[in-house]
Amino acid sequence: MAKIISIQNNILRFHFETAEQRFEAYYESFLSSDLGSIYRAIPWDNLCRVIYKHLPRKSNRGKKPFFSLQGKIALMFLKQYLRDSDASIIKRLHTDYALQFFCGIYLRPEDQIKDYKLISQIRCELAKTLSIDDIQAELMKYWRVYLKDIHIGLIDATCYESQLRYPTDVKLLWECCEWTYGQMKKMCRWTKQRMPRSKFLEQSSKYLSYQKKRKKTYKQTQIKKRSLLYLLDKLLVQISDVYKIASNKDLIMPPMYHQRIRTIQTICNQQLDHYQNGLPIKDRIVSIAKNYLRPIVRGKETKIVEFGAKVNCVQIDGINFIEHLSFDAFNEGTRLEQSIFLVRKLTGKCTHVGADQIYATNKNRTYCSKQNIKTNFIPKGKPGPLEQQRGQMQSLLSKERATRLEGSFGTEKVHYGLSKINAKTDANEILCIFFGIHTANAVDIGKRILQSQKSKKHG
Fold this sequence. Notes:
Helix content: 55-70%
Distance between the termini: 66 Å
CATH topology of the largest domain: Nucleotidyltransferase, domain 5
Number of domains: 3
Shape: flat
Number of helices: 17
Number of strands: 6
CATH class of the largest domain: Alpha Beta
Structural class: alpha/beta
Oligomer: single chain
CATH architecture of the largest domain: 2-Layer Sandwich
Low-confidence stretches: none
Largest sheet: 6 strands, mixed
């Protein structure tokens, strides 16, 4: 016979206390956590003052927002640190007091956030007014106390890839045809027009059979490109005629439609010229949704071509700063002078530079010699009297650059959400890269702050 247990006498009782009663205990627990160390490593007042200058002025009417400016900035750090979706972060905010302390809010059960697009709206708001140079200067002022050897700058470039399928010409042309046909179908339905005749459905079945083939010959690919180019050109003419009739019936398409149509027309012209003449495409568009992306040829064994933002970074004692960011391919070897200028702007001096051999041009060597800057470049000509000391310095700079700087790139991509950036606009992608890099910096600085506090206690 089963034993009968009295539930009322054995029930677990929870003693809930107000935030005021246990605020100090909870706050101390938060500061001693990993998230609290990041919180102490960020100069919130200085960042808010810099970002507030660039934000558009709003009226005080309407509902008070959930997050202050500091809370909005904190959400961007949280996004890169947690590497979670916007909806998951909001759900965790409702129950995790550490996240609430980090964002500077207190959510009661009746004040829960129901709009899961709130973080996306905040990200778009901050992305429009992001000032990388001003914010990095404020961060350096706060972090400088915890840095050593600030006169040494390590320089290198990397590519932070965007979330994108590999863009073959056939895939790109078919996406253009599919989007154009879908928009034309919607306009005809709204305005009760007759759908123009085309070979879209026939080409759809042929494209599917082509994609199912494990091996696609060059001849098959050229035939498919020719047929898709002919179809796309015809669809662009047809949708232009349909839109003229629809505009007379007071149908107004959003600005995104016109931008996408211009992008598709540019792709059609590029691919047609490439198919007929066989010449390389200048400023090749690889995605109709992200028309700002360009192929970045890296020359690596694992990835010959990458699609994303190329960033030239400067590292000072393990802390990375953005010197130049562009979605177009550029030669980082031409940016040594600008990198040295950034080191001097942030720290006041630069006496040693460690960089890859692509930076070792004659122009850069002459500049470093005039500025009395020691480098890790392989010397030209006969060895000098202090060749042994120079070789030791060169070895140390090269080892530091190859391990610490390049290792930091891998850390940012693996642990702070920069391996595949899932943003829809170039401004949002730049924002994610910026906060991903400086979230990694804040984690490092937070550990140094804790270490300095422990050494003071023991000292």
